């Protein structure tokens, strides 16, 4: 059994998914596809940054991801990765045009 298919990994994935669902639809559209398509390929440090980021306040996440404010230094890289993923129009076949 690979590490990604262990019960602990499945439980972590479910927690991450539910924590990625936010009170703002705009954040859901950024965070959930990133989690589904990119999270598993991230290094340990970036995964830890994502887990810490989604513990933050919606207003902060929105301001950072919409480039209205500069993210705190520890989140700059992960915010940039999420933004890059969102800018790629081919990243989700379910995405409306």
Supply the key terms:
single chain; 97 residues; mainly alpha; DNA polymerase, domain 1; 59% helix
Short summary of the structure?
This protein is mostly helical and 97 residues long. It is built from five helices and no strands. Helix 2 (25-37) packs across helix 5.
Task: Give me the CATH fold name.
Answer: DNA polymerase, domain 1
What is the CATH homologous superfamily assignment? Flavinator of succinate dehydrogenase
Total beta strands: 0
Mean pLDDT: 88
Textual characterization of the structure:
The protein has about 100 residues and is mostly helical. It has a single domain (about 5-85), classed as Flavinator of succinate dehydrogenase (DNA polymerase, domain 1). The protein has 5 helices and no strands. Helix 2 (about 25-35) packs across helix 5 (about 75-85). The longest helix is centred in the first third of the chain and has 14 residues, at about 5-20. The model has no long low-confidence stretch (mean pLDDT about 90).
